[in-house]
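Recap for those who missed Tuesday's class. We walked through two folding examples back to back. For each one, the amino acid string is listed first and its predicted structure tokens come directly after. Nothing is annotated here on purpose, so try labeling regions yourself before you check the end of the notes.
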Amino acid sequence: MSRSPSPPVDPDDLIAVGVIRKSHGIRGEMSVEPLTETPERFRDLADVWLVSPDRSEMRPGRLTSARSHKDRALVALEGIADPESVAPLRNWTIEIHSRDAKALEENEFFIHDLIGLRMIAPDDRFLGTITDVIEGGGGLLLVVEPPDRPPFEVPFAQSICTRIDPAAGTVVADLPEGLEDLSRAEEVAQPPAGAENPAASVRLRMDFVTIFPSMFDAILREGVVAQAIRGGILAVRVWDLRDFTSDTHRSTDDIAYGGGAGMVMLAEPVFKCMEAIRASDPDTSPLVILTSPQGEPFEHETARELAAGEWLVFLCGRYEGFDERVREALVDRELSIGDFVVSGGELPAMLFADAVARLVEGVVGDWNSVEGDSFYSGLLDHPHYTRPAELRGMNVPDVLLSGHAERIRKWRKEQALRATALKRPDLLERAGLNAEETKIAERLRSSNHGEDPAQKKP
């Protein structure tokens, strides 16, 4: 790589066309992730620049060959003849001078030309300045920074970004309702001034580490978790793992050593994020939980144990999961929602958080409703009915309309035992029944009342 492109260039004049991911073969060829929709573009290139992830180092280079391989480009660089020479260049970008870029088609734009543009609404209202462009789950996201609020992300889609005019320095965006209120950066959900229960102190803190922080907007704004946050009982914080990356593309994953399909989440951003999390409260040690299909099954007793703690941190993985060193060095407990795989750890983490939050004192207004829930006593819950008493030929059991408290209590106990015996007999075997429950269970078995107690459907 002794031959330098001439003349030297300003880094701002360079355009990245690919990211070096790994070596390929034994002759120094490298696998490059294209940043262009036309990977064959590499065949037309000669003089390039190699730029380090933090852009602190630039090296001139010359492409000697390029070919396509699946969704990657396999390229060879002058002076690179073995895998050992490729290794130090992993995650470096291959960049070209803007004058060497192909002419853009209509409605095509270079990513670097979007940064710095002003985003405005169709009514000319200023929404913010585009400060970054990142890769999201469904494509590119524009990071927009308003003057008086946290940044938010806008999908780079024609249906939203309806008019782009780099010459005028503007992007006209027709934003879906509520999009401006989603913060891209870490979100801290704390009780606001004048909270519903200002005398309450935070009883449990929960942190989530994710590459998709906006997924947690639902539990932060609706339901028992959101109510507990407003009441000052829970504190919730969402951390964007991309904020702890070191390259310009904010990469959080890479190919696996040894080959194989799928990407692996990088360990270093997780370590940096956990350092920031611990630094936010150095006097308390959190319990770090990894959501994983390999973890122990999450059950009601698990939720009770976690609800008794002070601080939980959920690591939400994606793709093939985290680098194993994350589990070895950081994780205290692995939890699974069942023997199946979902696309990421965010949904399991939200399920865990909701189940745990319900068991924190003060979160649910009527504690009797929590105690009556399925699994709280080791049994499934009894049936519930409300108005009207008759619906499409189906009637509410007479005992519930009798007003006789003791008869209602016994009926509900019997129905809970019957449902458990029918649907989850494994729970009945380890429920630790008291004398009354044992007597009811024996009567049910002797009278062969194992049929489904539900009302007959019309």
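Example two. Treat it independently of the first, because the proteins are unrelated.
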Amino acid sequence: MTYQYQPVALVAAHQALATLLDGGASAARIRVFDADETHLATFMLQKPCGTVDPASGQLALLPAGPELNAPAAGVAHHAQLEAGDGEAVAVVSVQEGTAPVPGALVLSVLNIVAGGTVELVSATIG
């Protein structure tokens, strides 16, 4: 059996996720890793971390800026959402592109160069 959540359920769930991400003294962040768990980039989020679309229930996360000095080189594989208190709350897939993709973190590049700049094009949950 398959299932699909209605927008009202997604709005409640994603608003709760946003509240969890905004918890703690610091802003939430997204950390990007390669397949071997090497940390490649960090994107701090604004506070509040994003907005929930009342029609679709999607949570659009709002980055505070790009990664200006990538700590390591590698090919981005996945990203971890971390609340303002540092607690990991979700892992999301990453892909390269120029437009938002629901359910994925879209980066300007997947092949990250140490010391390079990486743009977070979009991060849409749901």
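Answers for example two:
The radius of gyration is 14 Å.
Residues 7-21 form the longest helix (15 residues).
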